[in-house]
Amino acid sequence: MRVFLCLCIYLTSFFAFSSTDDIPRIKEILVQSGDYYVGGVFGQQPYQEHPNVTVKSYYMMQTEVTHVLFHRVTSWAIKQKLVQGKLNQHLHQEESNIAVASVSWWDAIIFANMMSRYYHLSPYYLDQSQQPIFKRPKNGVVIVNAAASGYRLPSVVEWQIAARGGRPALLHQTYGTLFAGSNQRDAVGWFPTDDLSQKEVPHIVGQKKPNELHLFDMSGNVAEWTGELFKLEGNNDLYFYCGGSFMLVDDSLASCDIHSRGHKRPDLGFRLVRNAA
Asked: I want to staple 33 with a disulfide (CB 3.0 to 4.6 A). Which of 57, 71, 248, 272 is the partner?
């Protein structure tokens, strides 16, 4: 199924969050709280004059989660016995800045909790006993701590707001572009080519033109999981993912799809957000 949304926000300046050891700096954008328009409109429109949704402030990672970030945080978590697994001491240099893919929704939220613990932030995803989730609960129950300071997946609204470019895009009248920073999809994202001249694999992040928020690869490269639930009858929990990918062309930023929490695809990754104080 498809979901079509159109959104507006205000933005503040670039923010970088780093630790004391060798884990890469996490580059983030602060998106301010406010009332914004949500709908299915693109092109030149008075978006600021029709607010109908409210969001709280949040930080969003500037790029999708990369192999080097995923590898180093996961290795730290294994050493701390937060998660089980074998340490892989080697990461090929040519792979380090490629977007992570073939991760399930479960993989993404567990990684978010690992990131939170590393940076001494409160984990967002809890099990039924109110403990942070570091492995998939047997009963599949996930409780969220909305007041947590730690990392999480964005809602569809938050994802769409950031992808559209926020206040700078409104000011520059580029908020209505079909893709994240341009009407020309190949200028801002990795998508499949008609002549098959481009390899269908995840790419190094940050190579294409960013959008007005200076976010990279919101269109194309790997599609991105969100924290937005679509509940079917029979206790089937599905979650949205957005952005298109090197395997799948979406018509616009407003196109999202859904799948089960355990689903993995070679073109499906994620980026994280966290609440702003």
From this structure: 57
What is the CATH code for 10-275?
3.90.1580.10
Q: Residue 242 is which amino acid?
A: C
The 10s digit of each residue's pLDDT in 212-244 is 999 999 999 999 999 999 988 776 899 999 999
Q: Which of 80, 71, 64 is nearest to 22 (CA)?
A: 71
Rounded Cα gap, residues 78 and 122, in angstroms? 19
User: Which are the contacts of 37, defined by CB distance < 8 A and separation ≥ 6?
Assistant: 6, 7, 8, 47, 48, 49, 50, 51, 52, 53
Q: Kindly report, residue by residue over 169-204, the tens digit of the pLDDT.
A: 888 999 889 999 999 999 999 999 877 667 789 999
State whether residue 162 is helix, strand or coil: helix
Pick from 110, 114, 115: nearest CA to 127: 110
Q: How far apart are CA 49 and CA 67, in angstroms?
A: 41
What are the residues whose beta carbons fall under 8 Å from the beta carbon of 170, sequence distance 6 or more? 8, 47, 48
Q: What is the pTM of this model?
A: 0.91
